[in-house]
């Protein structure tokens, strides 16, 4: 430190001070304004970017809220559509069951009517066959009994007697 104090020169100090002042004056005159303008414009750019980011954040929150609202509405609409589809399905099933039951009852009634008409036709056919068979048997018996003249006369008299009594 002694060496530093011993080597001190006022002339050198004076010229260095003048150069520093001139340098500061030159800086103030030529560089201070552009540097300050650059700093101010940068500051404005940063504040504008912060405002834009804040606005973008608010817009994103609004969009998110809108999206959630739309999703909630879509879910509610989907639930309503599913509920309606279930109701329609249940109605269609119950209608189909009742229609099938009605058709089944109609088919049963038609089958009963067909069976009854077939039964009546079979009974009528059976009666016709029994009548024909009875006539054929009666014809054969009568032919056998009426082979002689005496038996024919006796039969006619018996029949006339029965006819008058009835």
Automatic annotation (TrEMBL):
Location relative to the cell: Cell membrane; Endomembrane system
Taxon lineage: Bacteria, Pseudomonadati, Bacteroidota, Flavobacteriia, Flavobacteriales
HAMAP family: ATP_synth_b_bprime
Regions annotated as coiled coil: 46-91
Major localization listed first in the record, in broad terms: membrane
Family: Belongs to the ATPase B chain family.
InterPro entries: ATP_synth_B-like_membr_sf, ATP_synth_b/b'su_bac/chlpt, ATP_synth_F0_bsu_bac, ATP_synthase_B_chain
Transmembrane stretches, start-end: 12-32
Keyword annotations: ATP synthesis, Cell membrane, CF(0), Coiled coil, Hydrogen ion transport, Ion transport, Membrane, Transmembrane, Transmembrane helix, Transport
Record's subunit section: F-type ATPases have 2 components, F(1) - the catalytic core - and F(0) - the membrane proton channel. F(1) has five subunits: alpha(3), beta(3), gamma(1), delta(1), epsilon(1). F(0) has four main subunits: a(1), b(2) and c(10-14). The alpha and beta chains form an alternating ring which encloses part of the gamma chain. F(1) is attached to F(0) by a central stalk formed by the gamma and epsilon chains, while a peripheral stalk is formed by the delta and b chains. F-type ATPases have 2 components, F(1) - the catalytic core - and F(0) - the membrane proton channel. F(1) has five subunits: alpha(3), beta(3), gamma(1), delta(1), epsilon(1). F(0) has three main subunits: a(1), b(2) and c(10-14). The alpha and beta chains form an alternating ring which encloses part of the gamma chain. F(1) is attached to F(0) by a central stalk formed by the gamma and epsilon chains, while a peripheral stalk is formed by the delta and b chains.
Signal peptide: none
Function: F(1)F(0) ATP synthase produces ATP from ADP in the presence of a proton or sodium gradient. F-type ATPases consist of two structural domains, F(1) containing the extramembraneous catalytic core and F(0) containing the membrane proton channel, linked together by a central stalk and a peripheral stalk. During catalysis, ATP synthesis in the catalytic domain of F(1) is coupled via a rotary mechanism of the central stalk subunits to proton translocation.
Protein name: ATP synthase subunit b
Organism the protein comes from: Flavobacterium ponti
């Amino acid at each position: 430190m002694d060496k530093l104090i011993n080597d001190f020169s006022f002339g050198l100090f004076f010229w260095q001070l003048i150069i520093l002042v001139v340098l500061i004056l030159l800086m103030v005159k030529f560089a201070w304004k552009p540097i300050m303008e650059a700093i101010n414009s940068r500051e404005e750019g940063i504040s504008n970017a912060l405002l834009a980011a804040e606005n973008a954040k608010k817009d994103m929150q609004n969009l998110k809220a809108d999206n959630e609202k739309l999703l909630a509405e879509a879910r509610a609409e989907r639930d309503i559509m599913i509920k309606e589809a279930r109701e329609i399905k249940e109605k269609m099933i119950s209608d189909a069951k009742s229609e099938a039951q009605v058709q089944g009852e109609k088919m049963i009634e038609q089958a009963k009517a067909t069976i009854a008409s077939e039964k009546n036709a079979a009974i009528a056919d059976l009666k016709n066959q029994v009548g024909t068979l009875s006539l054929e048997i009666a014809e054969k018996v009568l032919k056998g009994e009426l082979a002689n003249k005496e038996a024919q006369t006796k039969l006619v008299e018996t029949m006339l007697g029965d006819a008058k009594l009835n």
